[in-house]
Specification:
single chain; 0% strand
């Protein structure tokens, strides 16, 4: 069955990054639980880095930054300042972009 040529054309999409999106700030921080004891120090560093990268990726997605190419280090550091976490390292910024890329 032939498909009309009009159906094959992608519909134009209005990017949401040009509009200001209100970022919802949580009312109170989530209660922290102690990490399990007895692991190597590298495990704790990696675990905390992943948590920070995930928080930043979620905040970027909420603000309208949907593609990893849009999330430059300056953008990620600005978002970290906005949500109240310390400025991320280059490794954490890379991890934020990886989360945005692989969770699509």
């Amino acid at each position: 069955m032939p498909v009309p040529a009009v159906a094959l054309k992608p519909m134009p999409v209005q990017p949401t990054t040009k509009r200001a999106v209100q970022l919802e700030m949580p009312c109170e921080p989530v209660a922290k639980r102690p990490l399990p004891p007895g692991r190597p120090r590298d495990w704790y560093v990696t675990h905390n880095r992943r948590l920070k990268a995930m928080r930043l990726a979620i905040a970027l997605l909420d603000s309208g930054v949907y593609l990893p190419d849009q999330a430059r280090n300056e953008t990620i550091c600005g978002m970290a300042n906005l949500i109240g976490v310390h400025a991320p390292s280059d490794t954490t910024c890379h991890m934020v972009r990886a989360f945005m890329r692989y969770n699509r």
